[in-house]
Specification:
single chain, about 230 residues, alpha/beta, Rossmann fold, 6-stranded mixed β-sheet, 4-stranded antiparallel β-sheet, 10 strands
Length: about 230
């Protein structure tokens, strides 16, 4: 489905990613883990067209998208839920969700998509007319994920979905990610909660200093002495 091959991404003269390659197959949850500054968010920005790779290729369903506009990338089936949620605070929850369905294919499915989002996040049913900026952090994360789903993605990219949430909400968010995946959406997950992310993932990649340092199944990486020492404190 998604194949990133040997990309280099720079901010000015500073390399953020060097010869990075990852892939996501249909139906998978794939985690990318690493410390702050490892290049995880930059990888998602490169895939979604926000940051252009200097070299290498990004293909989605056998189509080259390395130089494709962000809007077109969303239209062909990739949604990006960014770190920090980035909602429109003065717009209502419903208006924020509808912003995710701006393309013809998504607009046709809007009622069905909204019903599905409210099934995943029933708390939002009573918040639809409330301004997004007045919601709790957990509720805002639900809106951000819901907005990403409204574009009817084949691949959903999530950047730190549990950041700043209470432990009980963290568990709930990971349960919902699994439900979304079970209903047919592939997931590319960036998450500092290494244990939770690898536990639900089919495969994982470890980014260190802008390079892929390790790869394997979620179980293999959780059992890795390097991961246990560096990221789990064991």
């Amino acid at each position: 489905m998604l194949k990133v091959s040997g990309i280099d991404v720079y901010y000015g003269d500073m390399a953020a990613l060097s010869n990075v390659g990852i892939d996501v197959n249909r139906g998978e949850i794939v985690a990318v883990v690493g410390s702050n500054g490892a290049g995880k968010s930059t990888l998602l920005k490169a895939i979604s067209g926000i940051q252009r790779p200097r070299t290498g290729t990004i293909r989605f369903n056998d189509t080259e998208i390395s130089r494709t506009s962000t809007s077109r990338i969303v239209e062909v089936g990739i949604s990006h839920v960014p770190e920090g949620r980035q909602l429109f605070p003065t717009m209502t929850v419903l208006e924020n969700l509808e912003m995710g369905a701006q393309f013809p294919r998504a607009r046709k499915c809007l009622p069905e998509s909204l019903k599905k989002v409210l099934d995943y996040f029933p708390r939002l049913k009573e918040r639809l007319s409330q301004k997004a900026g007045t919601l709790s952090g957990g509720e805002q994360q639900m809106v951000a994920m819901g907005r990403g789903l409204m574009s009817v993605p084949a691949l959903m990219m999530l950047d730190e979905p549990s950041l700043g949430l209470a432990p009980v909400l963290v568990s709930k968010i990971f349960e919902i990610i699994q439900r979304i995946n079970q209903q047919g959406t592939a997931i590319l997950l960036i998450e500092q909660n290494v244990f939770h992310s690898l536990k639900i993932s089919d495969r994982g990649f470890v980014l260190e200093n802008g390079r892929v340092a390790l790869t394997g199944t979620g179980e293999e990486l959780l059992a890795s002495p390097h991961i246990r020492k560096m990221y789990l404190g064991l």
